[in-house]
From TrEMBL:
Name of protein: HAD family hydrolase
SUPFAM superfamilies: HAD-like
Lineage summary: Bacteria, Bacillati, Actinomycetota, Coriobacteriia, Coriobacteriales
The EC number(s) this enzyme carries: 3.1.3.-
KW 4Fe-4S (keyword) present: no
Keywords: Hydrolase
Native organism: Thermophilibacter provencensis
Amino acid sequence: MIKLFACDLDGTLYNALHETDRAILTRIERAIAAGRHVAVATGRWSHSASELGFGELPMEVVCGNGAFVYGPGARLLRHVTIDPATLEELLDTFPTCCFTCIAPDGTFVRGTRDQHSAGYLAPSGLLGPLIARRMRRGLHSESFVFGQTTSDILSHEVCKVNCRVADPALEAEVDAFVSEHADTLVNASFDGSLFEITAAGVDKGEAVAWLAARLGYAEDEVAVYGDGGNDLVMLERFEHAYATRGGSEAAKRAAGNVIGSCAFHAVPRHIMATIRREGPLAQDEG
C-alpha cells in the first residue's frame, strides 16, 4: 500500500503553466484526508509547500534536489552542507560565474541582481514568455542577497549551488571540476546548461527515502513521480515510479511506467486512482 507520494513539480505535479490549480489542490487535499502523505520533490528551494502554491496543505517538501527536507509549517527537518573547502575552491576557480549559493538562512549570490536574472532565459514556444514569468515568480525574494564575496558565502552552511553557464567552453570546465571532485560534489540538473550542485550522495531519491524512514514507511510504500534529469536517481530507486508523458526519454526509462500529461493533471489523478484502488489506511497505519 502506498503511504507516501513524492512528486516533482515542473512538468509533473504542476500544470502546463507551471503552477497549481483547483484540480491539483483538491486531489492532494483528498489524498491527505485519506491518511496519505504527499511531498514535493523539487530542485527549487522553498521553506514550505505554501510558498510553492499549495496553500495551507500539510505537505512535506524535499527541495534543493534533496539537500533540504522541510516538514509542514516550514519546519527544517534535515539539511546536508557542501564541504566548505571544495566550495571555496569552486568559487575561486571560476570567478566570473554568477554562483547562487543556497543555505538554510538564505540565498547568497556572488553576482548582481541583473546577472542572476540573465541566467534564467525564457523557454521557447508560444507560451514561453508567460511560463518564464511564472517560473521566475519569487526569484528575487527577500531571502536573496547579492554581491557576495567568497568569504561572505563561506560564512553560511551552503547546501546547493546553482549556476547557468552560456559559454560552452566554460560550461565544460565547470563540468570537469565537478567530475574531478566526485567525492564531495554531484551535479543533477534538469537542464544541460544549468548546474545544480549539491554534496556527493545527495539526490531526490536519497532524501525521499530518508523522509519515508522518518515517517515509518518502507520504500515499497512510496510512489514517486518525475520527468527530467534531476529525477532519474529517484525514479530508478523506487519500485513504484512514474514519469509523465512529456518527460525525457531517460526519465521514462528510469521509471519504467509512463502516465499522462501534466496538462491534464496526470499525477494528481494517478494518486487518487491509487488510493481508490488500495482503500483507506487502517487507523494504526496513518
